[in-house]
Amino acid sequence: MVDLHGQYLEIKEEIDYSMAQVIQNCSFVGGAAVQNFCHELGAYLGVKHVTGCGNGTDALVIALMALNLQPGDEVITASHTFVATAEAIALRGLTPVFVDIDPNTYTIDVSAAEHAITRRTRCIMPVHLYGQSANMEPLMQLAQKHNLFIIEDNAQAIGADYRFTNGKTQKTGSIGHIGCTSFYPSKNLGCYGDGGAVFTNNNELGEKIRLIANHGQRTKYDSTMIGVNSRLDALQAVVLSAKLKHLDHYNNRRRKAALFYDQAFAPYPHIITPYRAPYSTHVFHQYTLRVPAGRDHLKDALQERGIPTMIYYPIPIHRQQAYLDYGYTQGSLPITEQMAEQVISLPIHTQMTEEELQYITQTVIELLA
Predict the structure, then answer these.
(1) Helices (H), the chain
(2) Taking every pair of C-alpha atoms in the chain, what is the biggest distance, in angstroms?
(3) Pairing relation of β-strands 161-163 and 169-171?
(4) How confident is the model at residue 140 (pLDDT cuts 50, 70, 90)?
(5) What is the mean predicted confidence (pLDDT) over 217-239?
(6) Phi and psi dihedrals of 159, rounded to 5?
(7) Where are the domains of the chain?
(8) How far is CA 133 from the centre of its chain?
(9) Terminus-to-terminus CA distance in the chain, angstroms?
(10) Which of 148, 173, 285, 289 is the most buried (most CB within 10 A)?
């Protein structure tokens, strides 16, 4: 599904030198390398404050902590996502309120979110899925109308641009009150271990997030608020600094591979290729097909022919054992449940060759003909 080694070889000299410098300086936690990366990422995203942390799940937890939400407060989100989105909500004693998704983009349905708002709702957490933004403009309007916070789960769409109706564009993750991302190795911007970041343009939130991620300490041994221990280490920071310089190029390579897939599958209407929302660019963290009939057979047959695939996500969160107590049943979110039975993601990464793409597309077409 990914070729991290091939990507490493392209920037090996810079990576090896930067990591050797960290080891030589022995500044492993915090320090200049982390500060420099956070500054670079802030400049790229167009945000004032970036705080590195241990992973993407921690980023979401820290964001929720910064908003001072109380146990029982409701956070509206999608069920068609990785469990970390809901996990962060539940870990804070908050109530995840799952709503259905748009059948084209697979991101949160704005109308469904609006209908789910109650007197306990405090926040909406849209997930930018597969590399494409949720529809942020109407979500921000909803938030303003009902005095809600927006936390963007941007783990899969870093580098994507959202287009407002007035023509303005912003990077995903920079639009809501807080944005969060993961630097898991397979992400479009991934490190060589675990890592994450929280970002905001709000000065007060930016300071709170920075403190929370470091035990709530403004100065060492003096905690001004309850915090956690979640920090991005310097070795990961220098890897991310090196990769950030190439992120747009990497995303364009993914788009090129996606275009090849699109053109190959275009004559076959029963193979439903990814939809491009008019309000968002797509950075193709995943290339996800919809196969209305025979998805599981296709997956098995591709595996036999040496082609890996993944299903993101086979069990919606609201149907997983850990989340059944929230009261959702089979049929509660029909589009989400339908997509769980039909989606399948093909390999897509920065190192794909035309020969690989031809083999994959020809095999898929042959199997679904």
Answers:
(1) 4-10, 12-25, 32-45, 56-66, 84-91, 110-116, 136-146, 203-212, 234-244, 247-265, 295-304, 334-342, 354-368
(2) 66
(3) antiparallel
(4) very high
(5) 96
(6) 100, -15
(7) 4-244, 247-368
(8) 10
(9) 24
(10) 173
Q: Which amino acid is at 240?
A: L
Can you read off the two tokens belonging to residue 245? Answer: 């310089």
**Class in CATH terms, 247-368:** alpha beta
Say whether pLDDT at 86 is over 90: yes
CB 179 within 8 A of CB 199: yes
- Rounded CA-CA distance 129/82 in Å is 10
In this prediction, residue 334 carries a pLDDT of 98
Q: Is 275 exposed, middle or buried (0-12, 13-18, 19+ CB in 10 A)?
A: middle
Region 67-82 average pLDDT = 97
Question: Tokens for 323?
Answer: 């989340």
Over pLDDT 70: what percentage of the chain?
100
Q: CA-CA distance, 118 to 108, in Å (whole number)?
A: 17
pLDDT in tens, 7-37: 999 999 999 999 999 999 999 998 999 999 9
Query: To the nearest 5 percent, what fractions of the chain are helix, strand and coil?
Result: 40, 20, 40
CATH architecture of 4-244: 3-Layer(aba) Sandwich (3.40)
